[in-house]
Write a structure and sequence with these properties.
CATH class of chain A: Mainly Alpha
Largest interface: A-B, 44 and 56 residues
Shape of chain B: globular
Oligomer: heterodimer
Number of strands of chain B: 12
Strand content of chain A: under 5%
Radius of gyration of chain A: 23 Å
Largest sheet of chain B: 6 strands, mixed
Low-confidence stretches of chain B: 1-18
Structural class of chain B: alpha/beta
Low-confidence stretches of chain A: 1-24
CATH topology of chain A: ABC transporter involved in vitamin B12 uptake, BtuC
Largest sheet of chain A: 2 strands, antiparallel
Strand content of chain B: 15-25%
Order of helices and strands of chain B: EEEHEEHEHEEHHEHEHEEHH
Number of helices of chain A: 14
Number of strands of chain A: 2
CATH topology of chain B: Rossmann fold
Strand order of the largest sheet of chain A: 1-2
Number of domains of chain B: 1
Amino acid sequence: MSQTLAPRATSPEGNGSEKALRVGQRSLLRRFLSRPEVGSLIGAVVVFSVFFAVAEPFRQASSFSTVLYASSMIGLMAIAVALLMIGGEFDLSAGVAVITSAITAGMFSYQLSTNVWVGAAVALLVSVGIGFVNGLLLIRTRVPSFLITLSMFLMLQGINVAVTKLITGGVATQNISNMDGFDSARLVFASEFDIAGFNLRATVIWWLVFAAVATWVLMRTRVGNWIYAVGGNRESARAVGVPVHKVKVGLFMTVGFMAWFVGMHMLFKFNTVQSGEGVGNELLYIMAAVVGGCLLTGGYGTVIGAVIGAFIYGMTKQGIVYAGWDNNWVMFFVGAMLLTAVLVNSWVRTQANKR
Amino acid sequence: MSAMTTHTDPPRPREPEGSDPIVELRGVGKSFGNVRALSGIDLKVGTGEVTCILGDNGAGKSTLIKIIAGLHGSTEGEYRVDGKPVRFSSPREALDHGIATVYQDLAIVQLMPVWRNFFLGSELSTGFGPLRRLDIGRMRAICDQELQKMGIDLPSIDMPVQNLSGGQKQVLAIARAIYFGARVLILDEPTAALGVKQSGVVLKYVNAARDAGLGVVFITHNPHHAYMVGDHFVVIKLGEVEFDAPRSELSLEDLTHHMAGGAELDALEHELERGQLPTVDPLHDSTPGWT
């Protein structure tokens, strides 16, 4: 758009004294409270304190590295899912898409005896392609993404098991640990280092790196502005020239990319993939994003919130084990936490917006 | 500059009629199949001039602004911008000619901060390649400056737009259109959903835009609002211009009269005076109704 017309200095109220920039006038506390992720931050502190108090093993550094690892497994996908939700859409196929990606890479490399990196590249195409198809169906049919990705979820779930059985005769892919390129791939996707007794896993580093990149894109680039806009008001965004379709398809492809990444981690960590896994994880990703302040209706939320949401999940999952409670309580607590977080978030939001 | 307190103020000095119009319609009409929504519309919008288009619901006001805004093509007549015939196929093209429309739904995103809304779709960037990023400092400064020029006082340009009043949202949309190079501003019933005080706020900015040299097309069905700011009035009825006059040739009473239906209203008045009113059953009856 052209900016040829110089704005003229007329004011209906007799242009009074030039005021200083109205920035930073809200108090620090109010600005903090109006952040989408504030509820999840409080929640994280509470959950941490509870398990720190009741579970003795939780206090050790080695347990903390396990907590971080469990968080990163949900958190990596939660980053992409949070971006998608801010853009106003769901992806229910995200959980099984991870497994689809791992199966594709594993079986392609094994059946054609290629370097595992070739399999990984094919899997990347497939994963991003699935995201592209999701997005394309959405904008072409205007059917809600809930239904489109639910269909994709069921189809992928079926394909994963059926194709694996068809080719290998079992429900898992073949072990690829002695194939070319496996070691370098494992180094990238599934390595671990010991730093002063603290076991640091590659996924945790990648989790934080991707979170930082996603946050930067969301808050500091045009695309980020557009993501908020298409989720907040699709028609308005279109009216001012935002490429709504490209943004939405791009977001689904981002989820596809992240599914590929997590899938590669699983493949190179365990050497083989159980084809029936992944079901139910899509809801955990959404849970993490919502706990972190994303609205189901779109247009609101942050990636940092989703990271904290995933961290709360990781603490709960491992904390219950360390506390010696029955493992079946994990889902109960995760559910209760989600409910609390949603209520606290909406309450904080109304309070912060009151003035 | 608070001449707009009441509509009894004497008319202000006006730009002479007939200065080169930016937008000119000659005999423009639009048919949807067999239905003739609009026909024979002549309209001129010059710089620093407020043209009010009035009409009852379904009179064809919306069709007319959609033609001017580039959403519809006309099926007859001529549409000229700066004297040259044009044919727009999208609002974007109209915008490139400096014709901006502020719709009732405003094209804003409620949950986003004021400054992000201001620049949405036309964000300023800095840096190169993968480090290309929003020039947040400059965008905030410009947004703040532009809003101050329009006299909007907000506690913070970081507040989400949903916290603004209806009038402030209108003014934000107007300020944005002006900043991004609008020469003609089309306002689609900007006061329709607003209270008395908020309407006054918007009308002040209509004046401000006029004084800034923009041509304003102000669509409304409120003759009082129109008379407060208008330089030229066009009343549309059943898709045709019923009445077209500069401010100097009419009073608010004339305008209200035309707006309210003119001759039809006279007939209705006459009918009411004859006293042939329907009789109504007393309310205590369990089956109230017309008899």
